[in-house]
Specification:
Low-confidence stretches: none
Order of helices and strands: HHH
Shape: flat
Largest sheet: none
Number of domains: 1
Helix content: over 70%
Strand content: under 5%
Mean pLDDT: 80
Radius of gyration: 16 Å
Length: 69
């Protein structure tokens, strides 16, 4: 798990310089860090042998909690 986190930190640091030179910095950085955070979360779950939940299950649970299903 430490290897996964270290690899993601290296990728973030390597691409951070290019992101800072972009004109639309805030939008690009927010999208980039969101995608990287989701990827890191999935990688950590896979590295500890825990299967991530299906998006369909998450949507159905959200609908049930709101009372739509």
């Amino acid at each position: 798990m430490v290897k996964v986190i270290f690899a993601f930190l290296l990728v973030l640091l390597a691409s951070f310089k290019e992101l800072l030179n972009y004109n639309k910095r805030a939008k690009v950085m927010s999208i980039y860090f969101t995608i990287m955070a989701i990827s890191m979360l999935l990688s950590i779950l896979i590295s500890i042998d825990k299967q991530p939940t299906s998006p369909v299950v998450l949507i159905m649970n959200a609908l049930k909690s709101v009372g739509l299903k």
